[in-house]
C-alpha cells in the first residue's frame, strides 16, 4: 500500500536541482555492427541490421555540444538515452529539444517514478494535454520533476507523443537512476534495456554476443544493474554465476521484466570470469538478447 | 510459505454471511460505443466492435430485478461481472442462475482466493466434478465460500465450465474484493480487468480513451484499484503521475499482471489532473487498453 | 540487494558432498500417452504426439544402472531430468555423460542458484568457454557446484550447449531443490515444469488431464511444489482450492513464472478432494497445460 510520500515537506539537506539537456536526434543505427553472431557463427548483412531512427542524446548545458549518454557502456552511447542520475529530494529540470528533422514527427519525454504536474507528463491526449506531449521539430519543452521519497530505484522514460509506438520501437527510451540521499555510488552501473527492434531482440539497441554491451568489472567493486524492458514483450533477466535478492528477500538469478517495468540489482563482485547475461526467453536469446560480463581479479 | 490459515476457529466477531445473486445473461456488447479512438482519431465501425456475448449480471435478492455490477464504474456495468465485497471471516453464498438461452451453453462460477469444498469449485472435470461446473441453461447452483485469513485482497472469478475459453473471451469474469475486518472502506474503488476481446485489447470490455471507464476522484480521497487480467496474455498496469509499493515494499508505477493474477493498490489521492492509466505493452495500448483518470481538487 | 553470501566461511556442520550421475539419452517420448483429453473428450493421434528427443536421465553411482528421475511423479520419469536435492552448505558434484548417439549433438548442463567456477558454467561461448559447454557424444564432464547461503529454494538446470534451443524444446531440463540445513523434508514434493513442446503446452512433458502427472497427498502432509518454466513463454501457476504467500507476504493462488524463473511453495494439506492445477493462460490450458491433484482424507 502506498501513501509513504503523502507529505512532501522541506527538501532534505543537500537536495539539489539537477539540469539535463536531452535532444531527439535522427541517427543511422546498426544493431549488429560486427555483422556476426559469435555463438552460432551466423553472419548478418548490414542491409538487415542498419536502420534510420530517432534517439535521445545528451547535450552539455545550453546545447553546447553532445555528450556520451551512459558512462559505463561499451557501445556508441546512443541507445538507450542519457542515464539521468539524481537522489531522493532532488528536483530534476529536463530541457528537451526536438531535432527530428528527418521524420519531422512530434516527440516528447514521459518519466516514470517521479512527481510532476500534468504539464510535465509528456503524454499526448487531444483536448487534455498541452505542448508537453507534442513537441514539434525545432521546438523545446522543459519538464520539471521531483524525486520524492518513493522515487529511489531505476525508472524508464520514453517518448509518449502521437508517434510513441514507432519511437519506442526505434529506441527512444532511457532510464532515471535515483539513489537515497546516503546510498553509496556504485563503482560500476550497467544499463540493460530489453526491446525488440525489427527482427532482432536487442539489449541497448544491439543484438548478439560481441555486439551487445560488454560490461566490465573487478572483484571487490560494487556493481549496479539497471534493468528495464520496452515494447510489447516480457523478458527474463539472467546473469550467470550470480544471484541477488528479489522482492520479499528470496534469492534469485532470473527475473521477469515486462514493458516499462524496471529494477535495480546490486552486489559486491567476487566472481572472476567471463559470464553471460541474457534474456532467458529462448526465442529472444536466439534473436540476439545476450551479452558478456567480464570480471577481472583485483 | 503458506499455512497461516491452518485452523479456522470460530468466525471473528462481526463476521457475516453475505448473499449474492448472479446470473449469466446473453447481451449485445459494443467494445467501442463512441466508435472513436480519441488519441489517434481513428473511427471504428460498429460492424467490428459489436458482438453478442454472455456476461455475469448482478440481481437483487430472489432474482427480483437486475442491479449495477460495479458501483464506481462509468460504463454500462455489464463487464466485468458484479464486484463481490466481503471481509475476512465472512461466509459468501453466491446464487448462480444460467440464463444463457442464446448460445444455450452450460456455465459456472469458479472463485479464487476463498475456501470452499469441491462441490463449490465450479470447474468442469468429467467423472470428477458435479453440477457445480456444469450449470445448464435455466438451472441454478449455489456456491458456498469462506473468506479465510488469507483471503484479504482482490481475486478473480470466472466461468470454468466446458465453455470456459469462449466465455472468458466474451467477458464472463468478475472480482472479489475482500478487506480485513478493520480495513477502512476506500472512498473510490476502481475495477480494471485487462483482457483481449476479438481484435481489441480491452479494459472492462471497452477499448480506447473515451470508451474505457473514466475513473473520477477528488484530492484527499482514499483510492483503491482492483486490477486483474484474464485470457492468454500478460499485461503491465501503469498509472501516470502516481506510485505505489510493490511486493517487498519497493515503490513502483508499473506492474505485470498475468492471466488470473490480481492485485490491489491503495493511495490517498493528492495529484489533481487528468491522468492516463493503461497497459504498458505497446501493442495493447495501440489496440485500446488505455483510459483516463480524472482527479479534481477538493 | 544481494551481498548476503559475500563470505563463504567453513561449511556448516553436517554439510555433505553429494554426487549425481546424469546422462543425456535419446528416447521416444509420447506427450499424450492416453491419446485423450479428458476434459474436452478430444482424441489425439500418436502421429502428432510422439517424438524422438534427448532427455536427462539419472544413473546410479558409476553409471551402474538407470534410476527414476523424480520420486513423487506418476509419469515415466524422463521429463524433467533428475531432481537434484541438497542443503545449504553442501557441495554438489554432477557427473554428466553425453549418450546422444541419435542426433549426435554436443550437450551440457548449466545450473542456476549455485556457486561455481567458470569451468562448471556449462554454457557454450566460442573462444571463452571450454569443454563444460560442449560435451561431445560419448564424453563426460564433471560440474562442481556449491549451495551457498543464497541457494535455498528451487532452481532450473538445462542444456546450454550450441544445441540449447532444440534441446530445451525437447525436454532437456530439470530442477535443483535446496533446503536450509534445518528445513524439514516435505512429505510430498511435486515438480511442475511448464514448457511448450511442438503444438502442445506441457507439464513435465505431458499434455491434458489424465496424461499430465496426477499428484497425490493426504490431509496432514507437508506438501512442496517446485515450479518452473522453460522455453519462450510466460505462464501463471494456479492450484484450485489452495493459497500460499507470495513475495512480500501477500496471499495468492496464481503466480507468473517466466522462462527459467522458479519458485517453491509449501503448505500443510487440509483440503480433501480432487483439485485442478494448471497454467491459467487460457490458450495453454486448452493446449494441455492442466492436471489433477488428489488429496485423500488421513
Task: Report on this structure.
Three copies of one chain form a homotrimer. Chain A contains three helices and 19 strands. Chain A has helices at 46-49, 164-169, 282-286; strands at 17-30, 50-59, 84-87, 91-98, 110-111, 140-146, 153-158, 173-179, 188-197, 200-203, 215-218, 222-229, 235-239, 244-245, 251-252, 254-257, 262-268, 273-279, 290-296. Chain A has a five-stranded mixed sheet with strand order 11-19-18-13-16. The first copy, chain A, has a four-stranded mixed sheet with strand order 2-1-4-6. A four-stranded mixed sheet of chain A has the order 3-8-7-5. In chain A, strand 14 (244-245) and strand 15 form a beta hairpin. Chain A is globular. Residues 1-9 of chain A have low confidence and may be disordered. Chains A and B meet through strand 7 and helix 2 of A and strand 13, strand 14, strand 15, strand 16 and strand 17 of B.
Which terms would index this structure?
5% helix; mainly beta; 19 strands; homotrimer; 4-stranded mixed β-sheet; disordered N terminus; 3 helices; 5-stranded mixed β-sheet; 298 residues; globular
Short structural description:
Chain A is mainly β and 298 residues long. Helices cover 5% and strands 40% of the residues of chain A.
What is the first-to-last residue Cα distance of chain A? 43 Å
Question: Largest protein interface?
Answer: A-B, 48 and 43 residues
Please give the count of helices of chain A: 3
In which range does the helix fraction of chain A lie? under 10%
Q: Major sheet of chain A, described briefly?
A: 5 strands, mixed
Could you name the ranges of chain A where pLDDT drops below 50 across 5 or more consecutive residues?
A: 1-9
Q: Give the oligomer, counting copies of the same chain as homo and different chains as hetero.
A: homotrimer
Give, in order, the helices and strands of chain A: EHEEEEEEHEEEEEEEEEEEHE
Strands of the widest sheet of chain A, in order across it, are 11-19-18-13-16
Mean pLDDT of chain A: 93
What form of chain A results from the Cα inertia axes?
A: globular
The proportion of strand residues of chain A reads: 35-45%
**Derived structural class of chain A:** mainly beta
Question: How large is the radius of gyration of chain A?
Answer: 19 Å
Structure summary, number of beta strands of chain A = 19
